Amino acid sequence: MGAIVEVKVPDIGDFKDVPVIELHVKAGDRVKPEDPLLTLESDKATMEVPAPAAGVIKEMRVKIGDTVSAGSVIALLAGEGAGTAAPSPAALPSVAAPPAPVSAPGGVAEVRVPDIGDFKDVPVIEIHVQPGATVKPEDSLVTLESDKATMDVPSPLSGTVSALKVAIGDRVSEGSVLLLLATGAATPAAASAVPAAVAAAPSASAPASAAAGASTAAGTRAATIGETGFALAYAGPAVRRLARELRVDLGQIKGSGDKGRIVRTDVEAFAKSGGAAGPAKAAAPAGGAAGLELLPWPKVDFAKFGPIDLQPLARIKKISAANLHRNWVMIPHVTNHDQADITDLEAFRVQLNKENEKSGIKVTMLAFMIKVAVATLQKFPEFNASLDGDNLVMKRYWHIGFAADTPNGLVVPVIRDADKKGVVAIVKEMSDLAKLARDGKLKPDQMQGGTFTISSLGGIGGTYFTPIINAPEVAIMGVCRSFWQQISSDGKQYSSRLMLPLSLSWDHRVIDGAAAARFNSHFAALLSDMRRALI
Ligand code: CAO
Fold it and tell me: Rounded distance, CA 108 to CA 191, Å?
């Protein structure tokens, strides 16, 4: 055992008298270098103070609620080996908030990453605004997360976001431009009074910014952790790591810390009370099912085999991953494949688009499929239903979702009352919704209430696939690229027909195979001859 050294709070920028909100160790604990000792939280940032070296904690010199500044002694550490010293400033976030005026066009502010201490190349894990959004001072703009701290960058001014300069996953350092803010009132005269380019101060790790931590370990340990709840829980990086280690679902814990923050002891108490997820259990349906007794997820040191990069999952991906996993595990899926002869419909679509060339409206195959879906659902109403315990909720409305691929992941906007809309109205609405989706501006109510979903990969390629049902719906239609095929009805005469591959996944608790085959066959017949929809 080496000499006893005082562990001090290193340089934390302009912060003074910052409260200690969590203690991660106590006297007698053995620590490794970088193990978090305590968490400080100002109104601008959450910061962990890590152990500077390996050793045993002899004494904690602070308790929760104490306030500390750079140089305050927080613990006595009996070092193991040489070189035990005060924490290296490099190991600790130092967050300060001085505005950093830089020249910029009048009325347009460049919002930059402020001084975030020794951190460099910190990933952007969330973007809270989109171009066109109006913001007030202190509104959260983006969240950055290093392995030591989660930091929100709030807006320094009122204004309208005119352009984003970063995307989720981008790495930023002090001075990186995050976005451009049009400060409406700013005139050339006013611009000199208000710094046109401003470094905003990172703010405290708030509940909404706590998506951190759910990415890297997701899926590797906790089969029964609800990833969405975990991502949204109000807890710091160290507590998230601990929760992963103990297989505790943060989403189920009521935090005992300030403002409901989940602290280390909450996680430990939850694990002790038996709340931790078992190592081999998969998500069980409500009402209970035996654990699946699966092997633990393989843990591989990928870097041993070649160079790697870590790319944090975008927020939409984390949320959709959790939903898709639940749906896949809980719904007994079966997929029926079929083909529709769309030769005539495609010819009609091409002719329609020629006739309407000047209007700029392009009728898509997907819009016809939405009308066909409504007509087929009306003939087979159990496909337009949801399971609710022992009841089947039969819906007397037809809201059709369509999967849309966006830079941040998959979303499903919904065309409401598709039964009451014509193909052209559906085309316009789909194009508006797809644009909102790509820009990340879809509102929650534009993705809710769907009764059936179509997932079209037709513009991309493929032949057949198994779409995952979008719960609580009970079926989904997957569509791939159409192809020309020689078709014969008598084995003698052949003609070239344009065939559309259909893949219908259905919930076997609600639907049986014969009904699914009939559904597909009817869907295909309507696409072959839409006049049949009138019958
Ligand atoms: N067969 C052959 N070609 C097709 C086709 C099909 N089934 N469907 C569309 N196309 C062609 C169109 O004719 C068009 O070609 P041109 O550009 O030459 O005119 C092109 O593909 C683009 O099609 P579109 O403009 O009609 O777009 P769309 O309606 O097919 O798709 C949207 C819109 C939002 C669904 C799509 O952009 C998208 O996001 N698709 C991916 C959905 C997805 O990810 N599903 C998987 C979910 S499960 O993980």
Answer: 9
Q: What residues form DSSP beta bridges with 312?
A: none
Closest ligand 1 atom number to CA of residue 402 = 35
**Closest-CA residue to 364 (of 339, 345, 378):** 345
What's this model's pTM, rounded to 2 decimal places? 0.56
Structure token pair of residue 323: 């939903």
CA of 404 to the centre of ligand 1 (A): 9
Each residue's pLDDT tens digit, 347-397: 999 999 999 889 888 999 999 999 999 999 999 999 999 999 999 999 999
- Report CA Rg, the chain: 28
Q: Is the dihedral of CA 335, 341, 344, 349 positive or negative?
A: positive
**What is the DSSP pairing of strand 122-127 with strand 333-341?**
unpaired
The token duo for 129 is: 């605004």
pLDDT tens readout for residues 475-520? 999 999 999 999 999 999 999 999 999 999 999 999 999 999 999 9
Beta strands in 389-430 (DSSP E): 391-394, 400-402, 404-406, 409-411, 414-415
DSSP letter for 54, please: S
Q: How far, CA to CA in Å, does 524 sit from each of 368, 372, 453, 520, 528? A: 12, 9, 16, 6, 6
Asked about 508 being catalytic, the answer comes back as yes
Query: Is the distance from CB of 28 to CB of 102 less than 8 angstroms?
Result: no
d(CA 58, CA 29): 8
Ligand 1 near 405 CB (within 6 A): yes
| Ligand 1 pocket check for 477: Cβ under 6 Å | no
DSSP string covering 305-352, please? TS-----PPPHHHHHHHHHHHHHHHHS-EEEEEEEEE-HHHHHHHHHH
Considering all CA atoms of the chain, what is the largest pairwise distance in Å, rounded to the nearest integer? 94
User: Sheet harboring 46-50: ordered strands across?
Assistant: 46-50, 36-41, 18-23, 67-68
